[in-house]
């Protein structure tokens, strides 16, 4: 018998291990992209496709290649302390970006931040030297909205000498209300303030308080997660509402919350000192995503996302980047059903989820079939039969009113012939 000698090359093996670690490990963590050349705080981020705009307390910087390289932009801005950025996704206007600064100044840009002019004119800027913390424009309305340290200002429509008018009726502190967040949901405007959350129709002149069950009124961020409202407070709390702000539910305590973004049912929070926290189920459960962060990277002031990456702006001039698929599952929520075979049924995740009273459950059929939908508790016991009948091909919905059920985790099971699919439902009260 001939013996074959095998010489083990330790250097090559070590190189393979390093390569595997680099391409398998580094890709699943945060990496720094750099940013401003001197130490500045990244106070706001706006991401448009592969263009990343970072507003700092020392000017505006921009990357057009997902953070690989950066350049200083923002010519014409009257102040370098930028508090808010708003990209114009719609409307026939001679600009595509708004920037809010200290001292009540707002400017517009027609070239994604290269140069700016006063918006609308230097003589009609918001009064009282109010720092501009948030900007908003609704799709089907002419008005623009600015949230400042001295309440809300509204611009009814744009022309060179339009005037920003105070719009603070209904606020507990009137024009002394600090407004730190503005969002739109179902054509209604929501404002996060130091006196809680308020709601108004674009055509109404009076804000309505929406603070029921909200245990902290010092709100600094607002967002929507597939119809669920999300609010964070300066005192470290996250809240959610599945009924348009009529009732709020405590979700999580996170130290020094500074930033908030949502993607589908995923909620991502930036903390000053505790890095990034993520919930993949509308705030029901949370975990940290800080792999790769070093030192000051844990001090997150702003967040932004596109289809491929999430960006975190910190207090030391750096913008960090991570693959979005590392943080959220690409097969959940919105993308889930698109990955299914077109020849099989599909049970869609209920909406909203979590929910406090009513929730909508949808399913799709490739052809006519008999469908049963049943609700089970956490112990696997059937508690309700929602459906047991024939349906034609297409998408169908059914409502579940859970007012008479205890809060907790439930499961919805769909059976179509031999096909069975189950979704988790979270009931909160």
Walk me through the structure.
The protein is mainly beta. The protein has 2 helices and 35 strands. The longest helix has 16 residues, at 10-25. It folds into 2 domains: 30-327, 7 Propeller (Methylamine Dehydrogenase, Chain H); 336-427, Sandwich (Immunoglobulin-like). The protein has helices spanning 10-25, 324-327; strands spanning 31-32, 42-48, 51-56, 59-63, 71-73, 82-87, 97-101, 106-109, 117-118, 132-137, 144-148, 151-155, 165-166, 179-185, 188-193, 196-200, 208-209, 219-225, 228-233, 237-241, 249-253, 257-263, 266-271, 275-279, 287-288, 300-305, 309-314, 319-323, 346-351, 358-365, 369-376, 382-391, 394-401, 408-416, 419-427. The protein has a 4-stranded antiparallel β-sheet with strand order 1-28-27-26. Strands 2-3-4-5 form a 4-stranded antiparallel β-sheet, with no helix packed on it. The termini are far apart.
Structure at a glance:
The protein is mostly beta strands and 429 residues long. The protein has helices at residues 10-25, 324-327, and strands at 31-32, 42-48, 51-56, 59-63, 71-73, 82-87, 97-101, 106-109, 117-118, 132-137, 144-148, 151-155, 165-166, 179-185, 188-193, 196-200, 208-209, 219-225, 228-233, 237-241, 249-253, 257-263, 266-271, 275-279, 287-288, 300-305, 309-314, 319-323, 346-351, 358-365, 369-376, 382-391, 394-401, 408-416, 419-427. 5% of the residues lie in helices and 46% in strands.
Topology:
Elements: H1 10-25, E1 31-32, E2 42-48, E3 51-56, E4 59-63, E5 71-73, E6 82-87, E7 97-101, E8 106-109, E9 117-118, E10 132-137, E11 144-148, E12 151-155, E13 165-166, E14 179-185, E15 188-193, E16 196-200, E17 208-209, E18 219-225, E19 228-233, E20 237-241, E21 249-253, E22 257-263, E23 266-271, E24 275-279, E25 287-288, E26 300-305, E27 309-314, E28 319-323, H2 324-327, E29 346-351, E30 358-365, E31 369-376, E32 382-391, E33 394-401, E34 408-416, E35 419-427
Antiparallel strand pairs: 1-28, 2-3, 3-4, 4-5, 6-7, 7-8, 8-9, 10-11, 11-12, 12-13, 14-15, 15-16, 16-17, 18-19, 19-20, 20-21, 22-23, 23-24, 24-25, 26-27, 27-28, 29-30, 30-33, 31-32, 31-34, 34-35
């Amino acid at each position: 018998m001939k013996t074959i000698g095998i010489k083990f090359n330790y250097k090559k093996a070590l190189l393979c291990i390093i390569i595997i670690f680099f391409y398998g490990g580094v890709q699943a963590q945060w990496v720094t992209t750099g940013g401003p050349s001197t130490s500045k705080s990244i106070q706001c981020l706006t991401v448009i496709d592969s263009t990343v705009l970072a507003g700092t307390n020392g000017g505006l910087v921009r990357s057009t290649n997902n953070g690989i390289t950066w350049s200083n932009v923002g010519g014409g801005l009257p102040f370098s302390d930028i508090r808010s950025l708003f990209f114009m996704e719609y409307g026939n206007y001679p600009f595509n970006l708004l920037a809010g600064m200290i001292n009540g100044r707002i400017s517009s840009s027609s070239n994604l931040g290269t140069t700016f002019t006063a918006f609308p004119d230097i003589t009609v800027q918001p009064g009282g030297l109010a720092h501009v913390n948030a900007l908003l424009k609704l799709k089907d309305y002419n008005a623009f909205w600015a949230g400042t340290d001295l309440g809300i200002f509204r611009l009814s429509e744009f022309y060179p000498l339009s005037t920003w008018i105070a719009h603070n009726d209904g606020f507990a502190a009137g024009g002394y209300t600090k407004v730190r967040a503005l969002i739109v949901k179902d054509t209604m405007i929501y404002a996060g303030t130091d006196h809680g959350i308020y709601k108004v129709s674009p055509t109404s002149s009076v804000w309505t308080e929406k603070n029921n069950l909200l245990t902290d009124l010092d709100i600094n961020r607002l967002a929507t997660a597939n119809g669920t409202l999300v609010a964070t407070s300066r005192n470290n709390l996250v809240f959610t509402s599945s009924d348009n702000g009529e009732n709020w539910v405590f979700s999580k305590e996170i130290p020094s919350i500074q930033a908030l973004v949502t993607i589908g049912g995923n909620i991502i929070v930036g903390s000053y000192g505790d890095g990034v926290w993520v919930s993949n189920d509308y705030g029901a459960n949370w975990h940290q995503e800080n792999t790769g962060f070093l030192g000051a990277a844990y001090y997150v002031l702003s967040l932004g996302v596109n289809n491929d990456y999430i960006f975190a702006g910190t207090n030391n001039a750096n913008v960090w980047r991570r693959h979005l698929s590392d943080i959220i599952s690409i097969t959940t929520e919105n993308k889930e059903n698109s990955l299914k075979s077109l020849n099989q049924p599909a049970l869609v995740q209920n909406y909203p989820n979590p929910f406090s009273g009513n929730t909508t459950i949808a399913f799709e059929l490739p052809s006519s079939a008999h469908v049963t939908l049943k609700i089970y508790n956490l112990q696997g016991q059937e508690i309700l039969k929602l459906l047991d009948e024939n349906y034609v091909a297409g998408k169908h919905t059914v409502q579940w009113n859970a007012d008479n059920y205890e809060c907790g985790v439930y499961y919805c099971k769909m059976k179509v012939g031999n096909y069975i699919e189950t979704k988790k439902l979270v009931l909160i009260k």
